[in-house]
Design a protein that fits this description.
By secondary structure, the protein is α/β, with parallel strands linked by helices. It is built from 16 helices and 20 strands. Bound molecules: alpha-D-glucopyranose and calcium ion (CA). GO terms for molecular function: alpha-amylase activity; glucan 1,6-alpha-glucosidase activity.
Length: about 550
């Protein structure tokens, strides 16, 4: 496998609406991001994945795009975007754009033109189908945001497909003109000097809805190979596909370099572990550490040279990891740093979601009026309608709702966490007075410095990038593994629990690489690990 820059960097995801507001309107913006580039440089990241900044009516906060080649007004202008690219590139930070091409907004001119006119060339840009004889939807497919995936249009007496909200009609990838239009838009951005694309729900573009196929459709990989040839294939860009439900075998189809598709995918196997089998993410169950080990280790081992892992705990759709699988009350620092060390020492490209580096937590709500996200709001209506108790639905929302990740970034203890001088579009977590960037930077023992150190270690030690991976069988709550490269062995040991755990091995410690306690770790014969203790040591070759 040829080596690529995107295997060596750490990527930082920005959700622009919630990152930093430069003009006091309560909404984060591009100038706000530029103001914080030095902070990101200090953290040490090499690329930013920018959630969508394109023109959008914001039914799904920018994942409903009405113009791919213009910037959302609240975020700024194309000039601001170019300035951001220039300023980021100056600091050796690449900008990875979010590519949302499974669907557009219903306010995109393509949809508007085709909607009322079945003869328009744009009609076939989307997926229209006749009602059943009784007038009902063509089939039973449901939207990821609750209800039918089909919306009736009275003017033309047909239904259109929307796998997400009804303001996000699905594009028809079988239409060559659709594909050409998208490739030309991608090249428009490549020509501006971007570093790559994160591809939103890309596993859905090969859909055949009338045959009941949504994910992993028959021509999906053909389209991606064509996209690669027509757009980024000539440039060394980072391309990462969002692929819910990918197995290692499927991931290899996307990321085996010989197939010329994508750099890597986001797989979600570990992310589904705290949900009841066969149910929805809202149907909670406790995480089993055993399952977590199995899932993560499988991906470390099975991709081999036919793919590359992306490593993440968080994104804008997921709850905050320290609240989810750590302990955000009694062991906030310890568990947040353990999660960081455990993930960043694995093989693959790590992604940090804004605020993760200071241990931002979930924000429980008392009533649905405090929620903003469309997925949450729709689910609430659906479940209350189906007879669920309010308290039980709120419990699910507080554990899994997307607003948890989308609360504005806390920069300081000032009003609204210094995020805005106005009224924030979504309230901050009230704990911003203690969990904020300024406090983190002032405290040499903060979570921030663990992330900074992990990123620096990756720059200094190729073993982290290229080393082999081997799990060490131990008791359930200890997650321990080796990395080996060019005659060096690193041992990673983490206690994934609120209790002490005992770890044994025969290795001789040569030096401590990183840890989240001040323990001396000399002898590994019999180590009592404190709750959430994590360390990495170099050991003597055996
Ligand atoms: C992806 C995005 C999510 C969005 C959905 C529809 O899952 O990450 O935020 O709502 O696609 O675009
Ligand atoms: Ca603003």
């Amino acid at each position: 496998m040829n080596k690529h820059w995107w295997q060596e960097v750490v990527v930082y995801q920005i959700y622009p609406r919630s990152f930093n507001d430069s003009n006091g309107d309560g909404i984060g913006d591009l100038r706000g991001i530029i103001e914080k580039l030095d902070y990101l440089k200090l953290l040490g990241i090499g690329a930013i994945w920018l959630s969508p900044v394109y023109k959008s009516p914001n039914d799904d906060n920018g994942y409903d795009i009405s113009d791919y080649e213009n910037i959302m007004e609240e975020f700024g202008t194309m000039e601001d975007m170019e300035f951001l690219l220039a300023e980021a590139n100056k600091r050796e930070i690449k900008i990875v754009m979010d590519l949302v091409v499974n669907h557009t907004s219903d306010e995109h001119p393509w949809f508007i033109e085709g909607k009322d006119d079945p003869n328009s060339p744009y009609r076939d840009y989307y997926i229209w189908a006749n009602p059943k004889p009784d007038g009902s939807a063509p089939n039973e497919l449901t939207s990821a945001f609750s209800g039918s995936a089909w919306e009736f249009d009275a003017t033309t007496n047909q239904y259109y497909l929307h796998q997400f909200s009804k303001k996000q009609p699905d594009l028809n990838w079988e239409n060559e003109e659709v594909r050409k239009s998208i490739y030309s838009m991608m090249n428009f951005w490549i020509d501006k000097g971007i570093g790559g694309f994160r591809m939103d729900v890309i596993d859905l573009i090969g859909k055949r809805p009338l045959e009941g196929i949504l994910g992993n459709g028959p021509q999906l990989h053909e389209y991606l190979q064509e996209m690669n040839r027509e757009t980024f294939g000539q440039h060394d860009l980072l391309t990462v596909g969002e692929t819910w439900g990918a197995t290692p075998a499927i991931a290899k189809l996307y990321s085996n370099p010989e197939r010329k598709e994508l750099s890597m995918v986001f797989q979600f196997e570990h992310i589904g572990l705290d949900q009841q089998e066969g149910k929805e993410k809202w149907d909670l169950k406790p995480l089993s550490i055993k399952d977590l080990k199995t899932a993560l280790v499988k991906w470390q081992i099975e991709l081999g040279n036919e793919g590359w892992n992306s490593l993440f705990w968080n994104n804008h759709d997921l709850p905050r990891i320290v609240s989810r699988w750590g302990n955000d009350t009694d062991y906030h620092y310890e568990s947040a740093t353990l999660l960081a060390i455990l993930l960043h020492m694995m093989k693959g490209t790590p992604y940090i979601y804004q605020g993760e580096e200071i241990g931002m937590t979930n924000t429980p709500i008392q009533s649905i009026d405090e929620a903003q996200d469309i997925e949450t709001l729709n689910m609430y209506q659906e479940r209350i309608g189906a007879g669920y108790q309010v308290s039980e639905v709120l419990e699910s929302i507080n554990a899994k709702g997307r607003d948890n990740a989308r609360r504005p970034m806390a920069w300081s203890a000032q009003k609204h966490g210094g995020f805005t001088t106005g009224e924030p579009w979504l309230a901050l977590n009230p704990n911003y007075s203690t969990i904020n960037v300024e406090a983190a930077l002032e405290n040499p023992q903060s979570i921030f410095y663990t992330y900074q150190q992990l990123i620096q270690l990756r720059k200094d030690h190729p073993i982290i990038i290229w080393g082999s991976f081997e799990l060490i069988p131990t008791v359930e709550h200890i997650f321990a593994y080796y990395r080996r490269y060019e005659g060096k062995t690193w041992l990673i040991v983490t206690n994934f629990s609120d209790e002490e755990q005992v770890f044994h091995c025969q290795d001789k410690v040569q030096k401590i690489i990183i840890q989240n306690t001040t323990s001396t770790i000399a002898d590994l014969q019999d180590v009592t690990l404190t709750p959430w203790q994590a360390f990495v040591v170099e050991v003597e070759e055996q």
